[in-house]
Amino acid sequence: MHKIKKLLRRIFAPITIMLIPHSNKRPMSVKLPSIGIIVLLLVWTSFTGYIVFVGVTTERYNEVKAKLDFYYGQFADLRTTINSLKKSETQFKRLFSLEKKSEVLETLDVSDSGSIDMELLKKQIEKTMDTVGEIKDYLRQQRDIYFATPRGSPLEGGYISSPFGWRKHPKTGRRDYHTGIDIAAWPGTPVRATADGIVSFAGWSGGSGRLVVLEHGFGFTTAYAHNKKIIVKVGQKVNRGDIISYVGSTGNTTGPHVHYEVWLDKKPVNPRSYMKGK
Question: What does the pLDDT read at residue 216?
């Protein structure tokens, strides 16, 4: 008990602090209990430590925030790229029966921490998008070629009365080269375009009578001669199956039929080669 009282006296014993000015003024003294000084020191130490801690924490917060902002931007760009890829995926599922995009992720580089290399992921997806774009361009071109290629017969019904190539002319009896085929049919039978194209000629052309010529692109041209009536005009766009004229016997003929020609790269070819399917 005596020791405790002695300790308390020491703790609460006053300490005199002398303040001596460098002038003619009188010195000043301040008495403070020892416990007060100890408390002030503890408060000052705690406050100083807190200020240092807050400074370090704020710096760390700003650093983490900057990294989060960077990754957010990376994910935003990636989301845009993936959305574009998803739009293209639907179109290719019908063509290639694709069910998954796992191929895009199988070659991803993974760091020791297990996180995906965002820059590499972006490059790989962008490369995939470039490939998708090339495939789309190729398929678009193949589609255009398909619709520009003559297919099927210009008539529903009828029969081939004169073939392509060398023959005996039905009127002169002389041997001549037939640059198309003759398809006999009833007068007024609709004549249809065999491929998508643009009308380059529609009118009278000597022995061909009323003639329609269509330009299809990719080197293809078709001609339809001896028509009774033409219902298209120069510059008009037509699609495969559209009616362009009606069977007649105008010009140099022996009866109602359509003289049908197919030209490829400015040379006549046998139309029978393009009449096997529609």
Answer: 97
User: Quick count: other Cβ atoms within 10 Å of Cβ 53?
Assistant: 10
In this structure, which long-range contacts are made by residues 262-266, counting pairs with CB atoms below 8 Å and at least 24 apart in sequence? 262/150, 262/180, 262/194, 262/220, 262/221, 262/222, 263/220, 263/221, 263/222, 263/223, 264/219, 264/220, 264/221, 265/219, 266/219, 266/221
Q: Could you tell me the pLDDT band of residue 129, with boundaries at 50, 70 and 90?
A: low
Interval 52-61: pLDDT, tens = 665 656 676 6
Q: Is the pLDDT of residue 46 over 50?
A: yes
Crossing angle between the packed helical segments 118-148 and 34-96, to the nearest 10 degrees: 20
Predicted confidence (pLDDT) per residue in 247-257, tens digit: 999 999 989 99
Residue-by-residue DSSP string for 102-151: HHHHHT--B-TTS-B-HHHHHHHHHHHHHHHHHHHHHHHHHHHHHHHS--
Distance (Å, rounded) from C-alpha 85 to C-alpha 172? 65
The backbone region for 166, taken as left when phi is positive above 0, alpha when psi lies in -120 to 50, beta otherwise, is: beta
Amino acid at 101: K
Domain ranges of the chain: 159-274
Q: What is the mean pLDDT of the chain?
A: 78
In angstroms, rounded to a whole number, what is the distance separating the alpha carbons of residues 79 and 99? 20
Please tell me whether residue 24 adopts helix, strand or coil conformation.
coil
CATH code for the structural domain at 159-274? 2.70.70.10
pTM above 0.85, yes or no: no
Q: Is the dihedral of CA 236, 242, 247, 253 positive or negative?
A: positive
Looking at the DSSP bridge assignments, the partners of residue 267 are: 264
Long-range contacts of 104-107 (CB under 8 A, 24+ apart): 104/128
